[in-house]
Amino acid sequence: MIQFTGIHHLAMVTRDMDATIRFWRDLLGLRLVAGLGKPGYRHYFFEISATDMLAFFEWPEVEPVAEKDHGYPVKGPFVFDHISFGVEAEESLWLLKERLDAAGFWVSEMIDHGFIHSIYAFDPNGIPIEFSCPARGMDLRKTPRLVDRAPSAITLEGPDPQPGHWPTPPATDPADRAVYPGEGLDLLQEVKNNWRDRHQ
Predict the structure, then answer these.
(1) CA 42 to centroid of chain Cα atoms
(2) Which residue, 1, 20, 121, 132, is the most exposed by fewest CB within 10 angstroms?
(3) How far is 174 from 70, CA to CA, in rounded Å?
Protein backbone atom coordinates (compact mmCIF):
# COMPACT_ATOMS: atom_id res chain seq x y z
CA MET A 1 0.00 0.00 0.00
CA ILE A 2 1.23 3.49 -0.80
CA GLN A 3 1.89 5.58 2.32
CA PHE A 4 1.53 9.27 1.65
CA THR A 5 3.47 11.60 3.94
CA GLY A 6 1.64 14.85 3.21
CA ILE A 7 1.70 17.39 0.43
CA HIS A 8 5.36 17.60 -0.58
CA HIS A 9 4.68 20.94 -2.23
CA LEU A 10 1.91 22.97 -3.79
CA ALA A 11 3.22 24.70 -6.92
CA MET A 12 1.79 28.19 -7.45
CA VAL A 13 2.69 31.06 -9.76
CA THR A 14 3.63 34.69 -9.14
CA ARG A 15 4.77 37.58 -11.28
CA ASP A 16 6.55 39.19 -8.31
CA MET A 17 8.69 36.80 -6.29
CA ASP A 18 9.93 39.54 -3.98
CA ALA A 19 6.37 40.49 -2.92
CA THR A 20 5.62 36.78 -2.53
CA ILE A 21 8.66 36.32 -0.27
CA ARG A 22 7.69 39.34 1.81
CA PHE A 23 4.20 37.90 2.34
CA TRP A 24 4.91 34.21 2.95
CA ARG A 25 8.31 34.46 4.69
CA ASP A 26 8.31 37.82 6.42
CA LEU A 27 4.63 38.34 7.24
CA LEU A 28 3.42 34.76 7.81
CA GLY A 29 6.70 33.21 8.96
CA LEU A 30 7.25 30.36 6.47
CA ARG A 31 10.98 29.67 6.00
CA LEU A 32 12.31 30.10 2.45
CA VAL A 33 14.21 26.81 2.17
CA ALA A 34 15.21 26.62 -1.50
CA GLY A 35 15.66 28.99 -4.37
CA LEU A 36 16.42 28.02 -7.94
CA GLY A 37 17.01 30.63 -10.56
CA LYS A 38 18.56 31.90 -13.74
CA PRO A 39 17.66 34.86 -15.95
CA GLY A 40 13.94 34.69 -16.69
CA TYR A 41 13.25 31.84 -14.26
CA ARG A 42 12.89 31.51 -10.49
CA HIS A 43 11.39 28.62 -8.49
CA TYR A 44 11.33 29.06 -4.70
CA PHE A 45 10.13 26.78 -1.88
CA PHE A 46 8.69 27.77 1.51
CA GLU A 47 8.48 25.33 4.44
CA ILE A 48 4.97 24.82 5.82
CA SER A 49 5.81 21.89 8.11
CA ALA A 50 8.26 19.01 8.42
CA THR A 51 6.65 17.31 5.41
CA ASP A 52 4.93 20.08 3.42
CA MET A 53 6.12 23.00 1.30
CA LEU A 54 4.64 25.78 -0.79
CA ALA A 55 6.45 26.54 -4.06
CA PHE A 56 6.21 29.44 -6.50
CA PHE A 57 7.32 29.81 -10.09
CA GLU A 58 7.97 33.40 -11.12
CA TRP A 59 6.44 34.08 -14.55
CA PRO A 60 6.83 37.82 -15.29
CA GLU A 61 3.83 38.01 -17.63
CA VAL A 62 1.30 36.14 -15.48
CA GLU A 63 -1.57 38.19 -14.04
CA PRO A 64 -2.86 37.78 -10.47
CA VAL A 65 -6.17 35.97 -10.38
CA ALA A 66 -9.33 37.91 -9.66
CA GLU A 67 -10.33 37.49 -6.04
CA LYS A 68 -13.15 34.99 -5.58
CA ASP A 69 -14.86 34.22 -2.29
CA HIS A 70 -13.62 30.95 -0.80
CA GLY A 71 -16.02 28.11 -1.58
CA TYR A 72 -18.24 30.20 -3.87
CA PRO A 73 -19.27 28.23 -7.00
CA VAL A 74 -18.07 29.38 -10.43
CA LYS A 75 -18.65 28.23 -14.01
CA GLY A 76 -16.18 27.27 -16.72
CA PRO A 77 -12.59 25.98 -16.46
CA PHE A 78 -11.21 26.01 -12.95
CA VAL A 79 -8.38 24.32 -11.06
CA PHE A 80 -8.85 24.72 -7.30
CA ASP A 81 -10.82 26.82 -4.85
CA HIS A 82 -8.45 27.64 -1.97
CA ILE A 83 -5.62 26.31 0.20
CA SER A 84 -6.10 25.74 3.93
CA PHE A 85 -3.03 25.83 6.15
CA GLY A 86 -3.32 24.07 9.50
CA VAL A 87 -2.13 25.70 12.72
CA GLU A 88 -2.02 24.10 16.17
CA ALA A 89 -4.23 26.44 18.19
CA GLU A 90 -6.74 29.26 17.97
CA GLU A 91 -4.16 31.68 19.37
CA SER A 92 -2.17 31.23 16.13
CA LEU A 93 -5.26 32.21 14.14
CA TRP A 94 -5.62 35.42 16.13
CA LEU A 95 -1.92 36.23 15.58
CA LEU A 96 -2.27 35.62 11.83
CA LYS A 97 -5.43 37.74 11.69
CA GLU A 98 -3.68 40.58 13.51
CA ARG A 99 -0.61 40.43 11.24
CA LEU A 100 -2.65 40.35 8.02
CA ASP A 101 -4.88 43.18 9.18
CA ALA A 102 -1.94 45.34 10.32
CA ALA A 103 -0.21 44.77 6.97
CA GLY A 104 -3.28 45.97 5.05
CA PHE A 105 -4.50 42.61 3.75
CA TRP A 106 -8.20 41.74 3.89
CA VAL A 107 -8.84 38.98 6.42
CA SER A 108 -12.16 37.48 7.46
CA GLU A 109 -13.60 37.20 10.92
CA MET A 110 -13.03 33.91 12.78
CA ILE A 111 -15.44 31.26 11.49
CA ASP A 112 -16.56 28.22 13.52
CA HIS A 113 -17.02 25.24 11.17
CA GLY A 114 -17.70 22.83 14.03
CA PHE A 115 -14.59 20.70 13.55
CA ILE A 116 -12.23 23.61 12.78
CA HIS A 117 -12.03 27.36 13.34
CA SER A 118 -10.83 29.32 10.31
CA ILE A 119 -9.90 32.72 8.95
CA TYR A 120 -9.72 33.56 5.24
CA ALA A 121 -7.51 35.93 3.22
CA PHE A 122 -5.74 36.35 -0.13
CA ASP A 123 -2.00 36.44 -0.82
CA PRO A 124 -0.49 39.19 -3.06
CA ASN A 125 -1.12 36.98 -6.12
CA GLY A 126 -4.86 36.75 -5.39
CA ILE A 127 -4.54 33.14 -4.20
CA PRO A 128 -7.39 32.40 -1.77
CA ILE A 129 -6.00 31.06 1.50
CA GLU A 130 -7.50 29.77 4.73
CA PHE A 131 -5.86 29.12 8.09
CA SER A 132 -7.51 26.47 10.28
CA CYS A 133 -7.06 25.01 13.75
CA PRO A 134 -8.82 22.04 15.38
CA ALA A 135 -11.98 22.78 17.33
CA ARG A 136 -13.96 20.86 19.92
CA GLY A 137 -11.47 18.01 20.07
CA MET A 138 -12.69 16.51 16.79
CA ASP A 139 -10.15 14.90 14.47
CA LEU A 140 -11.79 13.74 11.23
CA ARG A 141 -8.70 11.71 10.35
CA LYS A 142 -9.22 9.54 13.45
CA THR A 143 -13.02 9.48 13.33
CA PRO A 144 -14.34 10.11 9.81
CA ARG A 145 -17.93 11.36 9.62
CA LEU A 146 -20.45 11.44 6.75
CA VAL A 147 -23.47 13.71 7.24
CA ASP A 148 -24.33 14.23 3.55
CA ARG A 149 -28.13 14.16 3.27
CA ALA A 150 -28.01 12.52 -0.17
CA PRO A 151 -24.79 10.49 -0.44
CA SER A 152 -24.06 8.42 -3.53
CA ALA A 153 -23.70 4.64 -3.35
CA ILE A 154 -19.97 4.99 -3.96
CA THR A 155 -19.65 7.40 -1.03
CA LEU A 156 -21.50 4.97 1.24
CA GLU A 157 -18.80 2.34 0.60
CA GLY A 158 -16.85 4.03 3.40
CA PRO A 159 -13.78 6.18 4.02
CA ASP A 160 -11.13 3.58 3.14
CA PRO A 161 -9.86 2.84 -0.39
CA GLN A 162 -12.01 0.22 -2.09
CA PRO A 163 -10.08 -2.39 -4.14
CA GLY A 164 -11.14 -3.82 -7.48
CA HIS A 165 -12.26 -0.68 -9.28
CA TRP A 166 -9.08 -0.05 -11.29
CA PRO A 167 -6.83 -2.39 -13.27
CA THR A 168 -3.79 -3.82 -11.52
CA PRO A 169 -0.77 -2.21 -13.20
CA PRO A 170 2.13 -4.34 -14.38
CA ALA A 171 5.34 -3.89 -12.41
CA THR A 172 7.96 -1.79 -14.17
CA ASP A 173 11.00 -3.87 -15.13
CA PRO A 174 13.93 -2.66 -12.95
CA ALA A 175 15.96 -2.21 -16.15
CA ASP A 176 13.39 0.36 -17.31
CA ARG A 177 13.39 2.39 -14.09
CA ALA A 178 15.30 5.41 -15.33
CA VAL A 179 15.38 8.73 -13.50
CA TYR A 180 15.92 11.73 -15.77
CA PRO A 181 17.58 15.02 -14.81
CA GLY A 182 15.33 17.98 -14.05
CA GLU A 183 15.37 21.43 -12.51
CA GLY A 184 16.87 21.56 -9.02
CA LEU A 185 20.04 19.56 -9.51
CA ASP A 186 22.00 22.76 -8.84
CA LEU A 187 20.93 22.42 -5.18
CA LEU A 188 23.10 19.27 -4.94
CA GLN A 189 26.17 20.64 -6.70
CA GLU A 190 29.09 22.48 -5.15
CA VAL A 191 28.00 25.75 -6.69
CA LYS A 192 27.62 29.15 -5.11
CA ASN A 193 25.10 29.06 -2.27
CA ASN A 194 24.12 32.71 -2.01
CA TRP A 195 23.03 32.40 1.65
CA ARG A 196 26.08 30.47 2.86
CA ASP A 197 28.65 32.37 0.80
CA ARG A 198 27.25 35.76 1.85
CA HIS A 199 28.26 35.10 5.47
CA GLN A 200 31.73 33.68 4.82
Answers:
(1) 18
(2) 1
(3) 45
Strand 53-58 and strand 31-38: the pairing is: unpaired
Per-residue pLDDT of 74-87, as tens digits, reads 887 776 778 999 88
Nearest by Cα to 20 from 163, 127, 98, 112: 127
Contacts of 136 (CB under 8 A, 6+ apart): 114, 115
**DSSP strand pairing (9-14 vs 53-58):** parallel
Nearest to 91 by CA among 106, 110, 68: 110
Residues 36-56 as b or e (16 or more Cβ within 10 Å = b)? beeeeebbbbbbbeeebbbbb
CA 52, distance to chain mean position in Å, is: 8
Q: How do residues 82-124 score in pLDDT, each as one tens digit?
A: 899 988 889 999 999 999 999 999 999 999 998 889 999 999 9
Backbone torsion region of residue 56, taken as left when φ is above 0, otherwise alpha when ψ lies between -120 and 50, otherwise beta? beta
